[in-house]
Amino acid sequence: MSMHRRVSSLHPNCPDVRRLAANPGEALLRAEAEAVERENAELRDRYATLNTIEEAQQDRRGVSRRTFLAGTAATVTALATAEFVSSQVSFAATPGGTLIHVFLYGGVDGLALISPNDDTYLKTNRPDLVLPASGPIPIGGNFRLTDAFAPLRRFLDSSQLAFIPGVSDPRLSRSHFQAQDACNLGGLPAETGGRGFLDSLVDALGPGTAFRSVGEGTTLPRSLVGTNAALALSSVAALNLNGDTKFKEPTAKAIRGLFTGINHPLEQAVTEGLNALATAQQLTAKPYVPAAGVTYTGQLGNSFKDLALLIKGGANVRVATIGVGGWDTHEDEGPRPGGYLYGKFRDLATAMAAFFTDLGDAAADVTIMVSTEFGRRVAQNGSGTDHGHGSVVILLSGKKLKASLLGKWGGFEDLDNGDVPEYNNLFDVMGTVMQGRFGLTNAEVGKVFPRLAYTPMELFQ
Predict the structure, then answer these.
(1) In this predicted structure, what is the pLDDT of residue 98?
(2) Is residue 146 part of a domain?
(3) Based on the domain organization, do 52 and 106 belong to the same domain?
(4) Is there a single domain that holds both residue 167 and residue 215?
(5) What is the CATH number of the domain that holds 341?
(6) pLDDT, tens digit, 9 for 90 and up, residues 115-156
(7) Could you read off the pLDDT of 342-354 as tens digits, one per residue?
(8) Of 93, 301, 390, 450, which cross-links 351 as Cys (Cβ 3.0–4.6 Å)?
(9) Cβ of 419: how many Cβ atoms within 10 Å?
(10) Residue 273 above 90 pLDDT?
(11) Are 460 and 436 spatial neighbours (Cβ–Cβ below 8 Å)?
(12) Are residues 319 and 194 in the same domain?
């Protein structure tokens, strides 16, 4: 007895699935997309349509929303989450530009970046880690800067690059986890409700595009977690629908049809997510070509390249974050040429210089703020340094700065248990940067840092 396999159509109006793809699973998904699009066009009542499709699934005639999304690429599944898109989509220009927060995870040795010239205390207590007398770049306040930052020298000369020493907060311990959490929340969890400080900042910035809050990376950084949705991007190009190009548009149309006009919590998220997808596809339709002479290298460089693509492409990014690990230098710190930390500083400076050069005139509306969870102890411990307190904040801004060394500095006469003291409060620095970039009031800054008695600083011209 011979057996014959019957190949049935997914839906009476659906074409033979075998012609859609060699892979049966992909072919079925594309057939389902076409079927859903046809059905949504024919029926007025969307709830009735969804119910009909879900019932049809039971006798293998149709597809349910759950089955459809489960079989789609992970990118499409992400479209149905509130964390994927912002609350409103508008591509109109908004004043104030972009703030980019670069967080250096691990606790940076600020004294290996900038330090007082020819300081006797440093020579005695960190003889192997003190910046050499020749090579480093002179900056204000009788300080010098590691020449690993030479790629940014022209921005230093044009009053666009500055450093703030002795930055910390009494609530920051010497625990990586606790200090990183407090830095990204803008205070302790009980004070902030677990909400990131950049998410609170977005409240004051008002509506924007789906790209108004962007975290470069595979997961959303703590500073962007909260009530406003944000994008976590490994790259702009990764925001895509998998599969053959010719099937992307009908698939997107089918998803839009399933989740629009239905008075459902997912409706707005999916609609705006698809709008973000369309923008990303438009921006990446051609390979991105940086400005003449600009080359991006490494993971950090690619993150800045992504942001350059979005900013120059008109995506209206308001706040963005980049996280960089590897700054916990208990041993083999190497702050001099050829050393480990020197190379980390050089990579950071090179990426920042490439980004600002690539932006060209658009850099006037961008500020980069670089911070870390804590500094290192003043005295070396063998070939490295242990967890400390005060560190350094780096500013690179299109809006000119008052000096290359900003804030207060009190020297090493009154150390905090062997650490650089808090001469400048971290959240005062952050709040002043926000004011300088976005024109916020003191009251608006106070809402971002609810337990801070905010004191503005003189940072910008």
Answers:
(1) 97
(2) yes
(3) no
(4) yes
(5) 3.40.720
(6) 999 999 999 999 999 998 888 999 999 999 999 999 999 999
(7) 999 999 999 999 9
(8) 301
(9) 22
(10) no
(11) yes
(12) yes
The tokens describing 241, both together, are 């629908």
**70/164 same-domain check:** no
Output phi, psi for 458, to 5 deg.
-100, 100
Q: Are strands 114-116 and 231-233 parallel, antiparallel or unpaired?
A: unpaired
Q: Is residue 92 part of a domain?
A: no
189 and 67 in a common domain = no
**Structure confidence at residue 231 (pLDDT):** 81
The verdict on residue 269 lying in a domain is no
Q: Is the same domain home to 192 and 292?
A: yes
CA dist list (Å): 430 to 72, 198, 352, 435, 437: 41, 10, 19, 9, 11
Q: Is the pLDDT of residue 59 over 60?
A: no
Predicted confidence at residue 287, as pLDDT, reads: 83
For 73, the domain range is 17-79
Lowest mean pLDDT among 18-27, 181-190, 221-230: 18-27
More confident residue, 4 or 159: 159
Its pTM stands at 0.76
Number of domains in the chain: 2
Do 53 and 180 belong together in one domain? no
Residues 89 and 81: their CA atoms lie apart, in Å, by 16
- Asked if residue 163 belongs to a domain, the reply is yes
Residue 106 near residue 326 (C-beta atoms within 8 A): yes
Domain match, 45 and 116 both: no
Distance separating alpha carbons of residues 252 and 271, to the nearest angstrom: 10
Domain boundary among 30, 51, 79: 79
Q: Report which of residues 125 and 231 the model is more confident about.
A: 125
